[in-house]
Write a structure and sequence with these properties.
This protein is an alpha/beta fold and 279 residues long. 37% of the residues lie in helices and 22% in strands. It has a domain of 181 residues: Rossmann fold. The longest helix has 16 residues. It binds S-adenosylmethionine (SAM).
Length: 279
């Protein structure tokens, strides 16, 4: 995610990103369910699942809940993320089937083998992308699947006219964020790269994220956390009146996010599913 807001190194303080990941999961639960419903019939009955770059364990736990006979291994380079995953897994009653492994995907997948791998919003962050894809292929059992999820468009949270400044502020923020990230594409076209690595393509689907209200109360904090994280990147790219309007959203005034109830959450993500060719 933007977490895209967060191309910072992953070995440092994850607190803000971790909160953002948890808020994202809470507000976008319907999207997670929709993806798992699409992928499950393509996956056979996986007994061993691995979540690569698992963050706070959103997908780890959702997969463990859906596939009740499977063990799910969360792999991340951040021990604090894995700690949050373990707590979440215990809270949701799947702690006995969730394992965590501290590892850097760039240096190989150790001895992990599985019927299903998933990488959500994490694969674009690795440097040696094609090598990591080949490592995943080696680690996938014949016939097993690899699910890759990336953010197609950063999220927006409000109606076009927020009652202050020019309408369309969030779309201009989205464009500025995308422009600022051009050096680190958030949405590589994984289809051809998965095939080059030796996977067979199974499908690619775009998911428009437009959860129906009422939203959980956490939506205001999600919007606030996200916009606060991207604010520093926008100083040189947004016009002064847009920056004023954004600062108004982040302040405790009448237009501030914490006093609003006109949220309209939107975003989009792409999901690729590829299969290890049968031996
Ligand atoms: C944006 S978060 C996504 C987390 C989670 N998959 C989700 O969708 O909620 C990206 C995660 O990938 C992890 N990550 C990035 N590069 C990695 C690497 N080389 N090896 C292992 N984990 C990595 C980060 O620590 C972070 O937790």
């Amino acid at each position: 995610m933007d977490y895209a807001a967060d191309q910072a190194p992953h070995h440092g303080n994850h607190h803000g990103v971790a909160d953002l990941l948890d808020l994202d999961a809470e507000v976008l639960q319907a999207f997670i369910d929709e993806v798992i419903d699409w992928v499950a019939p393509l996956s056979g009955s996986p007994r061993a699942i691995v979540d690569l770059g698992s963050g706070t364990g959103t997908w780890t736990v959702a997969l463990a809940q859906h596939f009740a006979d499977a063990t799910v291994t969360a792999v991340d380079v951040s021990e604090s993320m894995l700690g949050r995953t373990r707590i979440k897994a215990d809270e949701r009653g799947v702690g006995d089937r969730v394992h965590t492994v501290l590892a850097d995907l760039e240096t190989g997948l150790l001895d992990i083998h599985a019927d299903m791998f998933l990488a959500a919003l994490s694969l674009h962050e690795v440097t040696e992308k094609d090598q990591v894809l080949r490592d995943v292929l080696t680690a996938t059992r014949p016939g097993g699947i690899f699910v890759v999820i990336e953010m197609k468009a950063p999220p927006t949270f409000l109606p076009e006219d927020i009652g202050v400044g020019r309408p369309g502020l969030e779309l201009r923020i989205r464009e500025a964020v995308e422009a600022a990230r051009r050096g680190v594409p958030l949405h590589p076209d994984w289809g051809p790269r998965l095939e080059s690595a030796g996977f067979e393509s199974v499908g690619e689907r775009s998911f428009e994220i437009d959860p129906a209200p009422p939203y959980p109360e956490s939506v205001a904090r999600y919007a606030d956390t996200y916009l606060r994280r991207v604010r520093p990147e926008l100083a040189d790219t947004l016009d002064a009146d847009d920056l004023d309007a954004l600062d108004g959203l982040l302040a405790d005034g009448p237009h501030g996010l914490r006093h609003r109830n006109d949220f309209v959450v939107r975003g989009s993500r792409t999901v690729w599913v590829a299969r290890h060719p049968n031996a």
